[in-house]
Structures are given as structure tokens and as C-alpha cells.
Write a structure and sequence with these properties.
Blueprint (H helix, E strand, L loop, with lengths): L1 E2 L2 E2 L9 E5 L7 H13 L4 E6 L15 E4 L9 H18 L3 E4 L2 H12 L8 E6 L10 H17 L4 E4 L2 H11 L1 H5 L2 E4 L19 E5 L8 H9 L6 E5 L6 H10 L2 H4 L2 E5 L5 H6 L2 E4 L8 H9 L3 E4 L4 H5 L5 E4 L4 H17 L3 H13 L2 H17 L1
Parallel strand pairs: 3-4, 3-6, 4-5, 6-7, 7-8, 8-9, 10-11, 10-13, 11-12, 13-14, 14-15
Antiparallel strand pairs: 1-2
């Protein structure tokens, strides 16, 4: 018999040892993805999750039958001593545990692991896999950092022994193949495992008297919250903007927002900080906004599909692929804020004045592409693929 595509082991058979490696512990996409993987594998393998100090991102592991090990130094920080601590701790753990599968996710541990493989400092007994959660080069990235990152990626793809490289979408894999070179990528086993979202039971939709937009994600250069705030200046004066995510609650962040918009606009921006339950905000909003400079497959946008919200995305690489699947979505070039505001207002007006059939159609796409059931089936099949090799 088989369970979820994997063989069901007899009681005497040892479960495979699987190590999932993350980085920073604040709530964000990589910890969410790792928690989803751990939930899918907890009955099929002995799962250990490695990460830097947990600041809420890995809280979901508390409800799972998995081991969580803290290794300081795995979060991205420009400190040689910090990175050395993380690299040494990671390699020591992997050499001592010698698991059947090591699957590395976060950016810095991925560089550490692949560098160790390329230099033959780590010779794993089992399989290795690396998920690319977002291309660290190309559109939206700072030019010098992008050039350095691309050079490092090309070097590692050429120098590493054959391993498993996992992308979040076919579109991302195609872009990587074009940029890195098809021959480099062909040296490795390439897989696709999309993200998923799992909001669970949704509260009723509450449509406010005035339109509102909601945006989720941690504060930083990538999400470009400043653009969202400037955008609000050009929208009608009854629009509100809700910014959810780690860092939005800080004085520095809120002062920077206040410095770039008039006081009456700042009064219509709600900064929530990290929220344990985003569902009430999604069900009160008229549309989901994402002004990111670059993305992988943003879980926040998948949650918008799940909640049946219209989506408004900046034209980062991969945005068109998401918008093309949504019954009421747009990808915008925010170079002209007045024109972008007109298109946002048109979309919100359509959503508020029309019937709500778009909500169910958006959710149907989510059920087919990014639901927990589909994710679990895919990642169990992928585990079997890794272990068989």
C-alpha cells in the first residue's frame, strides 16, 4: 500500500531522517514553507528543522511531531563572525547526523551548503536539495548586488556535484535557465514545488463604507511599502491602506512613512506589525496590494486567491503569471502613480459594484494550484524522488 505517493513502512522499517534548513526566524515566506513541508512529512519521516533563533516564524512547529534545533548564524547578516558561526554549526550538525535528506531553503544556508559541496568540505551520505525561493539577481535587485549574486550562482551551479534544485514555479525555473545557462542547470535535477497557503476557515466578508487595500509582508527594501504609501496620495481621499507584517510596528518604519506623505494620508494608513491571524484583514479589504521589487511566489498573494480578493501587483518578474490566473487582477508599472491610481480605482469599483462571483473563481484557482492538499501530494512525491536517487 502507499500513502500520499510514498510507500507505507512496516513497523520495523526505520523512517528516513529528513533535515529541513531555514534561516531567520521572523514570520516570512521561507519559515512558512518549511512548516508546510514539516506538516506533510511528519508521519513519513523523522523531521528535524534547523533555523536561527525563532521569533515567531516557526511557531507552527510546536503543533507538529518534529524536532526544531536552533543554530545561531543562519540568518542573513553582514558579519563574518556571524556567518562563520552559522557555517561551522551547520556543517558540524550535518556531518554528525548524516541524514537521508538535507533540504536547504534560506538564502545564506543555501550558499553555505553549496559552497561546502563545491569545496568537498561536506560529503553527504544521503540526498541533498536546495529550494530557490526567489532569484537573487535580475529585475528589481540593486545592480551591483545582482551582478555579484549572478556570478556566485553560476560558479556554484558549475562547481557543485549533481544535486536537486527546486524552484517555486516553472516561470522561475525558465528564467534561471535563461540567465544561468541551460548547460549549467542541466547538470542538476530540477524540480518545481509551488508554495501553498492555508488560511483555514474564513470569516464572513465585511465590506466597509470606504474602500481599503491590504498588503502583507515584512518591512524592507523588497516589499517597497514606501511605494504603497505614496500610491495612496493619488487615490480618492476615502481610501485606506493596511500594512501588515514584521517591522511595520516600529517607530523608524512609521516615521519614514509619515515623512513621505501628507498628514491626512498618513492618518489613513494602518500599520499592524506582525499578525497571528490575517484573515479578518483580508475579509475586510477590497483588494490585495503588493508593491514588491522582486518576488518568488508570494504566499500573501496566494492567500488573496484563497480569500477571494482582487490582486494588484507591481510588475515584478512572475507577476504576470499570477495575474493571468486571477479573474480580477492587474500588474502595474508604478512609474506613473496617477495612471496606476486610476487603474486601481477602476478595479476596486468593479469589485464593489459587481457580483461576487470572482471570489469563488479565484478560490477555485487556489484549490487547484496552491491548496494544502495539492501541496502535500506534490511534496510527498518529491520526497520519494529524492530518496530513490
Amino acid at each position: 500500500m502507499a500513502f500520499g505517493g510514498l510507500p507505507v513502512l512496516a513497523a520495523s522499517d526505520p523512517l528516513p531522517q529528513v533535515v529541513l534548513v531555514g534561516g531567520e526566524g521572523i514570520p516570512s515566506g521561507v519559515p512558512r514553507h518549511i512548516c508546510h513541508l514539516a506538516a506533510a512529512y511528519q508521519r513519513l519521516a523523522k523531521v528535524t528543522v534547523l533555523s536561527d533563533i525563532n521569533h515567531g516564524g516557526y511557531d507552527a512547529l510546536l503543533d507538529l511531531d518534529v524536532r526544531h534545533v536552533i543554530l545561531p548564524g543562519l540568518s542573513t547578516r553582514l558579519s563574518l563572525s556571524h556567518m562563520w558561526q552559522g557555517w561551522r554549526g551547520l556543517l558540524n550538525f550535518l556531518k554528525k547526523s548524516n541524514p537521508d535528506l538535507v533540504w536547504i531553503h534560506a538564502r545564506l544556508p543555501s550558499l553555505m551548503g553549496r559552497a561546502a559541496l563545491a569545496l568537498r568540505l561536506w560529503r553527504p551520505r544521503g540526498a541533498t536539495a536546495f529550494t530557490i525561493h526567489g532569484l537573487s539577481y535580475g529585475k528589481g535587485h540593486k545592480p551591483h548586488a545582482s551582478a555579484i549574486s549572478l556570478a556566485v550562482e553560476k560558479m556554484l551551479m558549475s562547481a557543485c556535484p549533481r544535486t536537486n534544485i527546486v524552484f517555486l514555479s516553472q516561470d522561475m525555473a525558465d528564467r534561471a535557465r535563461t540567465t544561468l545557462g541551460a548547460k549549467r542547470l542541466a547538470r542538476h535535477h530540477v524540480h518545481i514545488l509551488p508554495n501553498c497557503s492555508d488560511l483555514g476557515d474564513l470569516p464572513p466578508v465585511i465590506r466597509g463604507a470606504a474602500p481599503s487595500l491590504v498588503m502583507t509582508g515584512r518591512a524592507g527594501q523588497q516589499k517597497n511599502y514606501a511605494l504603497a504609501a505614496r500610491m495612496l496620495v493619488h487615490l480618492p481621499k476615502d481610501y485606506t491602506l493596511i500594512l501588515c507584517g514584521s517591522g511595520t510596528e516600529t517607530d523608524d518604519f512609521q516615521s519614514s512613512i509619515a515623512a513621505m506623505v501628507p498628514a491626512d494620508v498618513r492618518a489613513r494608513i494602518l500599520c499592524t506589525g506582525p499578525v497571528r491571524d490575517v484573515r479578518p484583514y483580508l475579509r475586510k479589504a477590497d483588494a490585495y496590494l503588493l508593491t514588491s521589487r522582486y518576488e518568488g511566489t508570494p504566499i500573501g498573494t496566494l492567500e488573496a486567491f484563497e480569500a477571494g480578493l482582487p490582486i494588484i501587483l507591481s510588475n515584478f518578474e512572475g507577476a504576470d503569471a499570477l495575474v493571468s490566473q486571477h479573474p480580477l487582477g492587474i500588474a502595474l508599472d508604478f512609474g506613473n502613480l496617477e495612471d496606476a491610481a486610476r487603474r486601481i480605482e477602476q478595479l476596486v469599483t468593479t469589485a464593489r459594484n459587481g457580483d461576487d462571483s470572482y471570489r469563488q473563481r479565484a478560490r477555485q484557482v487556489w484549490e487547484k494550484e496552491w491548496s494544502p492538499q495539492v501541496f502535500t501530494k506534490r511534496c510527498r512525491a518529491l520526497l520519494q524522488n529524492f530518496l530513490n536517487r
